[in-house]
Amino acid sequence: MMRKNHFLPGLLCFATIGILSAQTSEIANSWLSIRYDALQHKLQLKEKASGKVFVQAGSLEGAATKTQTRKLQHPLFGAGEEIVINKSDGGFYTIDTYAGLPFAVIQETVLNSCKTPRYLQAQRSLSFVLDLQQPVSKLKTLGTGGLLPVDKNPGSYVFLTTVDPESRNGVVAGWLTHDRGSGVFFSDTLSGKVQLTGQIDYGRLLIGPGQKVPLEKMLVGYFDDARLGEEAFADALAKQYQIQLPERQAVYCTWYSEKNGGAGSNVSTRELVDFIAGHLKDYGLGTVQIDDQWQDGAIFNGPARGFDRAKPNGPYPNGMQEPAQKISAAGLRAGIWWMPFARNHRAPEFAARQQWFAQRLNGQPFETKWGGTSLDLTNPEVRKHLQAVATTMKKWGFGYFKMDGLWTGTVTELMYINDGYKYDSMGNSRPLFDSTKTQIEAYRSGLSLLRNSVGRDVFFSGCCQSQNMRSFGASIGLVDAMRVGPDFNHDKQSIRTGAIRASRLYFLNGRVWWNDPDPSIIRENGSSTSDESIKGIGSLTRARLLPSWVAVTGQFFLSSDWLPDLPAERLEIMKRCMLSHKGIARPVDAFDKNLPSIWLATDNHSGVNRQVLGLFNWDSTALELGSTISRTGLQPGDYYAFDFWGKRVLPDIREKFGFELPAESCQVIALRKKEDHPVLVSTSAHVTQGIVDVKKENWKNNELSGESAVVANDPYELRIAGLLDGGKWQLAGMDVEGDSKEITIEKLGASENGWTKVVIRSNTTGSVQWHLRFKKG
Prior knowledge:
Layout: E1 6-7, E2 24-28, E3 32-37, E4 42-47, E5 53-60, E6 63-74, E7 78-87, E8 92-98, E9 101-111, E10 118-130, E11 140-143, E12 146-148, E13 156-157, E14 159-163, E15 170-175, E16 182-190, E17 193-207, E18 212-223, H1 226-240, E19 250-253, H2 266-279, E20 285-290, E21 295-296, E22 306-310, H3 321-329, E23 333-338, E24 342-343, E25 367-368, E26 372-374, H4 380-396, E27 400-403, H5 439-454, E28 459-462, H6 470-475, E29 481-483, H7 496-504, E30 514-516, H8 540-553, E31 558-559, H9 568-577, E32 584-587, E33 598-603, E34 610-617, E35 623-628, H10 629-632, E36 638-643, E37 648-654, E38 656-661, E39 665-673, E40 679-683, E41 694-700, E42 703-710, E43 716-721, E44 729-738, E45 743-747, E46 755-762, E47 766-776
Parallel strand pairs: 19-20, 19-31, 20-23, 23-27, 27-28, 28-29, 29-30
Antiparallel strand pairs: 1-10, 2-3, 3-4, 4-5, 5-10, 6-7, 7-8, 8-9, 9-18, 10-17, 11-12, 11-14, 13-16, 14-15, 15-18, 16-17, 21-22, 24-26, 25-26, 32-33, 33-34, 34-39, 35-38, 36-37, 36-39, 40-43, 41-42, 42-47, 43-46, 44-47, 45-46
Helix pairs in contact: 2-3, 4-5, 8-9
């Protein structure tokens, strides 16, 4: 449902100012120029490089004919210019450009000209006609609801991309701020063009008599490659909220385990931790998180909510400090599940605390299915309680919080599964304890309170925006990771469930937060004691698909199989996929299908350009996947290619490629552009084949040398190509050094077809420096 500008009943009045002389205002930066015709009340945005007018007409509701321009200096975005457009009711709009931002920044300020306070529930006053110089039938919109025709999009939270899939030209619109309201976008067609409309839902934004209140800020920009526009939007969010993400670790979650699921137990946690420490810790598994069912409390409408104590007759009868200490003693981080923003008003411990809860319009506590009763996060007693629970968990020894049911803090209905816009009755509740705070403002203050209580060293994992997208924008800058989709297979998409949502939000990953697509299940058989929708993955080929995708795309790796029982070949998948790279990963076919199949990961931190091509067949039938070199994002030239899982050299790639993939399978290919000497193409440590493990690589004086991270007693293979480039090269000598005294290097087999393989063995986890000396034969 789209919402017009709406003030709650009985509080609406306006003042009118005189109509002043018409004028035209123009401002610009390096990327775009903006022109506002005050006589016709039309806004025009033009890309400077091409001269394309991509916003053909922008409508600012209530705009008058008086404008002015002025210079700006923003502490984050640099020098800028601004057009101020007065409104007939006494408010105004500002349109800004900044030297460090490839977008127009648009903001509305509203005035309450009444003599009494009023509440603003929703504001929808910004509308734009977009021109991508293509028929609307050829265009698509990509937002939280997926990739859809312009007139079929139900509305998107936080951002909306309008794109020509063939050229990738597109307009990216996004809400830069989410401090008090929840921004959404809607698209439609108008006279053969695209109409884009922005809306902000506030619920209850209190505006005092005579008060002017600035609303949330919107960004609009044009990009030759809309993927880069989405990434620029995420960069702007990171700058706006000064986001600095902590390092990722692969996480084990107890919930979905086929044995010892739910919260596990003291016995199972000890067994699990010992196994991880002995077999998987050095490969990147660094956190063990205990899930729901550890906590005490009465059960009403969803989980128990006694989060300040363990259940006396539950899986951890001696309290939660004991498992946390066990996990920490193994050099792992201890994690715990809880629901910070909901309790249940029917539980005995809250009988005398009914004032803690938000209320519906009829005065009843605001309760939703499974979520429980929303706490009023502006109530000082509630805030003291939350602070006490959070600090208690940290004192127990937990440094990772999985925070579930976050939407309850926004005091809105459960919307599950929520992708596209759904009306959730935001604002159909009584004012909060602090009536000056909106529901989004209260939610953000709750997350900020938790952060200030436990510090930056506790990792915040949000869960999950698909329960209600109101927690999407409202969480930006306040969580380290976010579950971007529903529970595994909850939409009957199995291994595709998380990948679908994480793909359309790929640009947020590593910039705003780490995308959490839920666990990479790799077990063959067996259902979970906690979720009967998981029956096992089946073939080894299928088991590789999701974790390989997580690794190539750089998402958040989560495991939830009973690890001690996994066969060696399935543990091998985890070992090669858990670490996360720091390069850039982009979907090649982002605007061609809802779940992209082709990804390119690139990185140059080792001193050379490394590229990994990920091909993912999510279909239940065989599929040919291919593209051209240029569309993939590679520089022109000839490339060596090595198939990681197939452990085989592939024919050189020139201009284009195409591979036949079996049903529900993947192919991860290391690509290395040819030079006039031998080069390192692939390693065996990780599916990204050098991106996470090769620290340095150099060619000098006929010597190929480098530094790599190796795991104790894990043979480390280097695949070298180019022995026929610039002459016929022969491996004349090699040596290796590192932290271990027991370290060896040897060539495996005879060199053939211009390739050779070298293996390094070390009994210590750490770094090794290797040197391969070549001569021309």
